[in-house]
Each structure stands twice: as C-alpha cells, then as structure tokens.
Automatic annotation (TrEMBL):
InterPro entries: GAF (IPR003018), GAF-like_dom_sf (IPR029016), HATPase_C_sf (IPR036890), HATPase_dom (IPR003594), His_kinase_dom (IPR005467), Sig_transdc_His_kin-like_C (IPR004358), Sig_transdc_His_kin_sub2_dim/P (IPR011495). It comes from the Bacteria. It is an enzyme of class 2 (transferase). PROSITE patterns: HIS_KIN. Keywords: ATP-binding, Kinase, Nucleotide-binding, Phosphoprotein, Transferase. This is histidine kinase. Its EC number is 2.7.13.3. PANTHER family: ETHYLENE RESPONSE SENSOR PROTEIN, TWO-COMPONENT SYSTEM SENSOR PROTEIN. It comes from Reyranella soli.
Length: 407
C-alpha cells in the first residue's frame, strides 16, 4: 500500500504474488495465545495496575505474543519532537527510560505517529519510505511493526515490536498489536483522568459517578463486540476464548453499573454484586442452571469486589466447560456467607464428573484457573477443592478487611 492511502489503512510492504498465510497448527496456537494475552492485559488494566508496571508488562507480553525479541513503548515528547523509550524488553542496558528516536516521518515509529496509520516493514534494509533508526541497526533488527498509542485526546506515542529473525509480520499480527495498543490506550486515558480527579475528589463526586457510567457503557460495547466476533469467527476454539473474555468484561461492567446506581462511589455490597454477575451468566450459559445464595450487607471496596466477582465468574465458567462435558448440562450452586466476624466464604459447586486426575491448584494450566489463583492471592485468601459424589466444590475464604488496607 502507498504511504498516502486514505482511510487509515495499515501501511504494509508488498508481498510476492500468491503468498498466503500458513494456517498451520502452530499458527492457530499462536492466535489462541494472542487472545489469552489480550484478556490478561485487559484484566490487568481494569484492575488499575501501576502504570509503569503495566507499560513494562505490555511490552513483555506483546513480544511473547508475536514471537519477537524486542518490543518498546515510545512516549512522544512534543518539546523535543522525539519518542522516548518509556518501557521495553530485549534492549541493551541504558536504552529503556533514556534513549529516544526522532518523531519525524523518516523513522518507522515517527511515520506511524505522524500519519496515524499502522506500519509493517519486514525488510528494513530495503526500505525507501523511511530510514532505519540507529537503535534498531545496532541491535541487528531486520523487521518492525508500529501502531499509534492514543492518549487522552492526543497521541501518547507508539507501540513498536521488532525482530532480528527473517520471518515476516502479517496482518493478523498487526490486528493483535492494535488490540494491545487499544487496551494500553484505555489505561493511559484512565491514568490521566485518575490524576486529574484525585485532586478534586471531595468536590466532584458526581464526576466520578459519570465516569463509572461511561466506563460501564464502554465495557458493554466491548462485550457486545467480543460476542459478535465469537459468533462470526468460524473456529470453535477461538469462539470459546472470545465468549469467556466477554463474560469477564461483563462482570467488570456490572461493578461499574452498581457503583453508578449506589450512594457510595467506592464501596459495594458483594452479595448483591455477585448475584447480578450470576444472573448474567445464567442467561448466557444455556446448558447450566445457576443457583445463588448470597448474604447481603458485606461491603467491599470496588477493586476487591471486582476481583472476588471475577473469581466467581471463572469458577462458574470452569464448571460449565468441564464438569458437564459430554452431558446436556446441570446445576451450579454459588454461596456467599460470612465466616465468623472477619472472614467470608465463596463456594461454587457443580454436580459433574469431578476434576481430572493430576489437577493441581498450585500449578493451574488454564487461563481461567490462573486468574482465580492470582486474584485469591491478591485478596490474601485461600482456596481449596472439596470432592463430592457427584461433583466438585471450590471454596474460597477471604478476609473482610485486608491487612494491606485495600478496603
């Protein structure tokens, strides 16, 4: 495509005629892993991770997803008209946080920033559109891919992935990179708003409610888009991953909806919140009937409540996927109740075939159980498996007030 094409289409090097994507099993596994990584990044961003850590984690996971040796987040510095390497992976010492490249049209990243169009260059040494930055040449990089990182009303910079290998980036890789940039862009916007709102919190409570309302609406749009793509993708494995991602986003959206409706903008009734999440899942998981018994009146901070609800979401999804495999469906029982004065219990039980032999909570293999164990640890809780005849019960015990003062 020509650099001056209209409509924001990606700028890609021409490929030899007849060259088609190699839809091998390895490629399919890579696409599945890319979807998992986008889900991980989305959850991390929505949980409000430290911004610098989020940038570094985005660079690391992006490089992994694209099987590239290098990745960097470039922040645009208008006063210098340069792009600072804010975060990255694979680079020599002294690059991240210090090195910068020109933000003009003569570099791949500058071209993406100035035109707003994604750029793929699989043969930098033959490029005529722009020069190869000295940083890339020194690291022996042959190919690069760039997409713009949007900020709050103006570009934050560029997300770039680079490689020494002779392989080629393709359109599907670009779609993943743009997805990662979109998630990071939402986090950048959220970071900017959070800084501005913190100083005016006492005087502008209504603004926070409006923000929550808009976030909820935006997340529901994301949920709808994921559900549409799940129906149209034409691949059962990818469909399942997209549907699970949609359920996670929907669980977080319901939290923002409850905060918007309530009088308290930073705390919520965990029992009522989880009841709503289970109601949504009951409507979307057709082959299972979800029964919920939740004690009301146990208030949690929004962040802790979202984490707890995502634990319930993943355990229900796990039961729906594995417990009734090969059967028409069955019952999933969810219970939330206080334990003594300072703890609560979350129980998710099915009446299915039980966990497979060799299943180890300490080393879960699936993304869903990794999310469960990660959030339980974050909440300073414990989780155990109880075997029944029939079925399996996961029991999570959480402190009502975290020792780390999350509430």
């Amino acid at each position: 495509m020509c650099p001056d094409n209209e409509g924001g289409a990606p700028v890609v090097e021409a490929s030899p005629a007849g060259d088609a994507p190699d839809l091998t099993l390895r490629a399919l596994h890579q696409r599945i892993r890319q979807q998992e990584i986008l889900a991980e990044l989305g959850v991390t961003a929505l949980q409000g991770a430290d911004f610098d850590k989020l940038l570094a984690e985005t660079a690391r996971l992006t490089a992994e997803a694209l099987r590239a040796e290098f990745c960097k987040v470039l922040e645009y510095i208008p006063s210098e008209n340069r792009l600072l390497v804010r975060a990255g992976v694979g680079w020599d010492e002294g690059i991240v946080g210090k090195a910068s490249i020109g933000a003009d049209l003569a570099s791949p990243a500058g071209f993406a920033l100035r035109t707003g169009k994604p750029v793929i260059s699989n043969h930098l040494e033959n490029e005529e559109r722009f020069r190869t930055p000295e940083m890339l040449a020194q690291h022996g990089i042959h190919r690069a891919m760039n997409v713009i990182l949007q900020g709050d009303g103006r570009p934050f910079g560029v997300l770039e992935v680079d490689s020494r290998s002779e392989d080629e980036f393709v359109e599907q890789d670009l779609a993943f990179l743009q997805g990662a940039a979109n998630i990071l862009g939402m986090a950048i916007e959220r970071e900017h708003h959070a800084r501005n709102l913190e100083a005016a919190l006492e005087r502008h409570q209504v603004l926070l409610k409006e923000m929550g309302h808009r976030v909820k609406n935006s997340l529901m749009i994301v949920t709808s888009m994921l559900q549409l793509q799940a129906r149209d993708i034409g691949d059962p494995t990818l469909t399942l991953h997209l549907e699970e991602a949609a359920q996670r986003v929907s669980a977080v959206a319901r939290a923002h909806d409850q905060l918007f409706q309530g009088a308290n903008i930073d705390r919520m009734d965990l029992g009522k919140y989880v009841e709503g999440v289970c109601k949504d899942l009951d409507a979307s998981v057709a082959h299972c009937i979800i029964h919920t018994e939740a004690q009301h009146g146990m208030e949690f901070s929004a962040d802790r409540a979202i984490s707890a609800a995502l634990v319930v979401n993943e355990l229900i999804a796990n039961a729906a996927k594995h417990a009734y495999r090969g059967k028409q469906g069955g019952r999933v029982q969810v219970r939330i109740a206080g334990v003594g004065e300072d703890k609560l219990s979350i129980s998710v039980r099915d009446e299915g075939t039980g966990v497979p032999q060799g299943f180890d909570l300490a080393q879960p293999k699936g993304l869903g159980m990794r999310i469960v164990t990660s959030f339980v640890t974050q909440l300073n809780g414990t989780i155990e498996i109880r075997h029944h005849n029939p079925g399996t019960e996961f029991v999570v015990i959480l402190p009502r007030e975290s020792p780390r003062k999350f509430c």
